[in-house]
């Protein structure tokens, strides 16, 4: 489990590093960097539950704001979101952001489980 956290720290650091070409890079860099730091702290055995809870609430709340657009995309029959790096249709950006937050949220839930178990 320890090395999974190290791997996740590197993955989220890379996610943060490739956000500079996004339309709103600072928020994405902040979110992905926060998850990377929390994963690194888990790897080092220094994870505390409150920072994980705070970031989890932020990410989950943000996801809720994108949920209507994600549901609309599903109702449209899940048209492709991978055709081009430019988001030509509004649903493309919403779905990509929702899925990016979903990956972050899953990782945060993993970290929360570890932080709660930690003596």
Walk me through what this model shows.
The chain is an all-alpha fold and 119 residues long. The protein has one domain. The chain contains four helices and no strands. Helix 3 runs antiparallel to helix 4.
Alpha carbon gap, first and last residue: 16 Å
Q: What is the rounded Rg?
A: 15 Å
What is the number of domains? 1
Task: Give the overall shape, derived from the CA principal axes.
Answer: elongated
**Strand content bin:** under 5%
Poorly predicted ranges (pLDDT <50, ≥5 residues)? none
Largest sheet: none
- The helix-and-strand class reads mainly alpha
Fraction of residues in helices? over 70%
Produce the secondary structure layout.
Blueprint: H1 2-17, H2 25-44, H3 49-75, H4 90-117
Please outline what is shown here.
The protein is an all-alpha fold. It is built from 4 helices and no strands. The radius of gyration is 15 Å and the shape is elongated.
């Amino acid at each position: 489990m320890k090395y999974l956290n190290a791997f996740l720290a590197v993955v989220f650091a890379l996610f943060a590093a490739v956000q500079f070409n996004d339309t709103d890079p600072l928020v994405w860099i902040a979110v992905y960097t926060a998850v990377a730091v929390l994963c690194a702290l888990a790897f080092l055995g220094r994870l505390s539950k409150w920072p994980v809870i705070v970031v989890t609430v932020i990410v989950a709340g943000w996801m809720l704001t994108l949920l209507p657009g994600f549901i609309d995309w599903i109702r449209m029959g899940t048209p492709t979101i991978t055709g081009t790096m430019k988001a030509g249709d509004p649903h493309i950006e919403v779905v990509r952001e929702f899925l990016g937050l979903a990956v972050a949220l899953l990782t945060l839930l993993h970290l929360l489980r570890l932080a709660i178990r930690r003596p």
